[in-house]
Amino acid sequence: MSTLEVRDVWHRYPDADAPALRGASVAVADGEMVSVVGPSGSGKSTLLRVAAGLLRSTSGEVLVDGRDVADQPTERRDLTVMFQHPLLFEHLDVAGNVAFAPRLAGSGRREARRCARRYLRLVHLEGMDSRDVASLSGGQQQRVALARALAAERGALLLDEPFSSLDRELRASMHDLLVEVRAALAPTILMVTHDLDEATLAESSVVLIDGRVHQHAPMTEIYRRPATVAVARLLGGFTEIAGTVRDGVHHCAWGRLPVAAEGAGDGAAVLLVRREALRLEVDADLGAGPGIGARVVRRRPIGTRVVVSLVGDDDSPLEVELPVGEDVRPGARFRVVLSDRRAPQWAVRDERPGSAAPALAGEPEEDTRRPVVDGGRSSVGPA
Ligand code: ADP
């Protein structure tokens, strides 16, 4: 197996207004799997096509095992690509499809079919060698495509939305299969996907937005600490609280909140708070610590939980996730507070267009906001 690296790649399609890739870099270690996620049109396929040699980038390097392959065609790059649609050879049977690469590499017919059978066993299609590929289900065809890609025995495997044409159940079984294949062969894999759950199959994920890599980290870390507001928006479920960081404290309409040292330094910064880390208090008691008065505008059930959308007294949109059944009706007023008031919050630099964070000078040291009196003191939502 091999390492794969894409270094500082720029790409602009002819006649395009803006570059599809702006200095994107991704490194995949030997035997590692990295997924690339991002909104539609963010450049994921372009990145994969550049890595595969299907597209020549405007500038940048592609290295396989440390060797620059930018001038090499796909077949000389020691990698193989699998797409969303299996693109099987209809004139060949199942084993013939899988044996194609070994045949091309010089194996005899019998040896190549023996090799094909080995990979068909790995993808749980033993005994189907002589089947006509057109007679297979979509899921089986994608298994053949995976076996064919593996049978090429190249250093790296590039997967472009490989399972997105399959229904949920089939996709889940392909995910299980990929885990098995990784345990058996440890291929180096770069996978493009728009599915954030699928992305977690990889050790780490690259978040590509507008052709730029915003973050490269394990998916759990990306959810915990999104590097930018754009990443948080892609994940969904975050409330953005604008303000200013000074000496490790975020000053905003909610009051003053300590922030994690790894996040934004001094200056305009947005707190990114997960909606399940917030709760609603019936009383808008400002003495209770940082929080903000807000009015419910919408409630949306998701399974056993309900997502409550509110508008804060500073007109900012807020989302809070509660167990279903809480008495939260549109129009009701609450105070939105953090469930854990002591934990340092996650702040990133405020780079949102048009955002004007409050100036540091003149920032009140004490919370002097108008108290909001609204009902009793009980709280709703998880403590
Ligand atoms: P993704 O895979 O993340 O959806 P793509 O890499 O397909 O994104 O596209 C990135 C950007 O490049 C988009 O704005 C898209 O419209 C543009 N683009 C993609 N392919 C072409 C092409 N062949 N010609 C011109 N523009 C393209």
UniProtKB/TrEMBL annotation:
Gene Ontology molecular function: any one: ATP binding
Keywords: ATP-binding, Nucleotide-binding, Transport
Coiled coil spans: none
PANTHER family linked: SPERMIDINE/PUTRESCINE IMPORT ATP-BINDING PROTEIN POTA, SPERMIDINE_PUTRESCINE IMPORT ATP-BINDING PROTEIN POTA
Keyword presence, Transmembrane: no
Spans annotated as Disordered: 345-383
Record-linked Pfam families: ABC_tran
Gene3D superfamilies for this protein: P-loop containing nucleotide triphosphate hydrolases
SMART domains: AAA (SM00382)
Protein name, UniProt field: ABC transporter ATP-binding protein
All copies of domain ABC transporter, residue ranges: 4-235
InterPro entries found in the cross-reference section: AAA+_ATPase, ABC_SmlMolc_Importer, ABC_transporter-like_ATP-bd, ABC_transporter-like_CS, P-loop_NTPase
Superkingdom of source: Bacteria
